[in-house]
Amino acid sequence: MENNENILNEMTRMKDLIKFDYVINEQRRLDIKIKKGKVRELGKGKPSKTDVVSFDSYVAKTPQDQWDAYLKNDSTMVSLMQGSSKKFWLKLKQDTIHKGYAVAALEEFNATYEENKWESVIVGDKTTVDQIPIEGKVKKVAGVPLKFPGNLEPNSKFFVDNYFQLTDVFVQSVKEDIIDPIVKQMELLTPKEGEPKAFIDSMSVKSSCSTLPNGPSPDKKTYSFEDLSRLRNQTATNYVIDELRKIGVYIPETFKPQQNWMGTNSKLPGTSGPSWNSNWPENIKVQKRPEYEQYKYLDMELMVGFNDNKEPNPIPKEDDFIDVTSDMYNIKFLKPGRHITYQLPKIIMRIVGTKKRKPNWKSKMLICPILK
Question: pTM of this prediction?
Answer without folding.
Answer: 0.57
